[in-house]
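Handout, section B. The chain below has 170 residues.
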Amino acid sequence: MILKIANLSDGIHEMFFDGKLSEIGLSEPFVNSYKMELHMDKRHNQIVLGVTLTLDAKFTCDRCLAEFIQPIESIFKHVYLFGTELPEDENDSLTYLPFDTDKIDISKEIFDYSQIAIPLKKVCQDDCKGLCLRCGTNLNIKPCDCKNEEIDERWLPLQQLKNIPQDGIK
């Protein structure tokens, strides 16, 4: 996504965008459309860009294997400094631009921050019961008839440790 900055006056600018994911270079697991709110603070030597990106993503639940759509919100800031001097240390949220820059491409930032917003653990609901380890029944839909086996005798000392109070007195 390219933002034209040449004719913008110094100050704060609010912009709103929505549309197809292909317009901003996103694909699976993202689905449907996007909404983006940009807050741009332009000064003579820098631009501070605040972005709120709202997306839907289609996942497979890690517990029960059901497909579900989850809304995702990615909020980030990026600073663009005008100049040719490169910093000694690399900073992912800082970009140097030539003084005569008339537009900035924020596609990389949109892609990177939307990928970071994908949760590590994907569950369809917080209280998802998952699948039975023995028969594979989805326990969210119905209980299974599998019987719980007795605990292996070798694990009984650990079970007893679990039942000891924190102060160590029975």
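Note. The radius of gyration is 25 Å. Compare this with the example in section A.
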